[in-house]
């Protein structure tokens, strides 16, 4: 029978098989590194015994151990879809000029508290000189190359007297045009206005619903309370001056130019705990802080008009340029509840990650410690396929075990574990 032709090296490597071989290395350095890495991994996933306990035994979050299971609550199913409804109501009386303003005067549908107004009264349709300085002129020729419209109307192409010393381009529109550069007072009484926020949320995955109103508070107590982050953190009535202060703003400066403040309500709930412990948390910020120093359009303002008829039936209007503080209520949150699937997944991940310690110790042994070559020789060993000759037929028909000790195969009690002392 011809001998077997040797197979190519790459083909033999492809069809080779690797099996685990246990080598016990008696080294204090490697042993300490291995146990420290394992302890750190377990602390990251689960945490040591009472890793968040105070000396009195009371559990208090410290945030230094058990990040995955204790801090991030990886054993829970989380619902990040929050359905929310917000209703706001402003109360307060303010004096602006010779007028007394109530809720209907300073509030709008987008929830803006007006703190300063520039009024242009008794406007009617017609022609009049433009009030903007950019449209000053000396002759009609100066008004014919400035485009077709201005901020107040449509140019007629004529240069007309604005007053006894100044001439400007004539426009067709609502006259007289607005002059928004005048200095007007600010209604600082708005600092003491109160804001009532009624917010309800729902997490549809768990069918959980909650409102921001304290559950056992009477109507009288609700009207008297005022929000404070430490003393009354659940009170839904906020003083506007406090909102500006919590956002790091000066109310007088904010009222003069206008601005946008954000009231954020966070609902981060652990539904494995009691229903009463799912509570809102309020925080405040200024949303237009990037553009508040813009020279072109600082702060926040808008225009609106009130139309009426004059004595002769002419349509008139009062144009108002209002500066105010806009409040945006932003609701966010998520809820979590125990689930067997994420618990199993993260538990398996925790115990699998313990193998990182073995990889690190192998790198140290194979590259940095004395006796690395000896360790490599013990760890990696190539064994060719053994060919076992067939047992000879017995003329007596007896099994090999019945022929005595000479025909018995030697049984190995070696477990494959080597012990190295480094």
UniProtKB/TrEMBL annotation:
Reactions mediated catalytically: Ca(2+)(in) = Ca(2+)(out)
GO biological process terms held by the UniProt record: calcium ion transmembrane transport; response to ATP
UniProt main location, coarse: membrane
Keyword set includes Disulfide bond: yes
Composition bias, Polar residues: 413-422
Region (Disordered): 383-422
Annotated residues for binding of ATP: 89-91, 194, 301-303, 321
Glycosylated position list: 192
Source taxon at top rank: Eukaryota
Annotated transmembrane regions: 348-369
GO cellular component, one term: plasma membrane
Cysteines engaged in disulfide bonds, as pairs: 128-175, 137-159, 143-169, 225-235, 269-278
Keywords on record: ATP-binding, Cell membrane, Disulfide bond, Glycoprotein, Ion channel, Ion transport, Ligand-gated ion channel, Membrane, Nucleotide-binding, Receptor, Transmembrane, Transmembrane helix, Transport
Family: Belongs to the P2X receptor family.
Subunit structure of this chain's protein: Homotrimer. Forms heterotrimer with P2RX2. Heterotrimeric P2RX2/3 has a ligand dose-response profile that is distinct from either homotrimeric P2RX2 or P2RX3.
Record function comment: Extracellular ATP-activated non-selective cation channel. Plays particularly important role in sensory neurons where its activation is critical for gustatory, nociceptive responses, visceral reflexes and sensory hypersensitization.
NCBIfam families registered for this protein in UniProt: P2X
Protein name: P2X purinoceptor
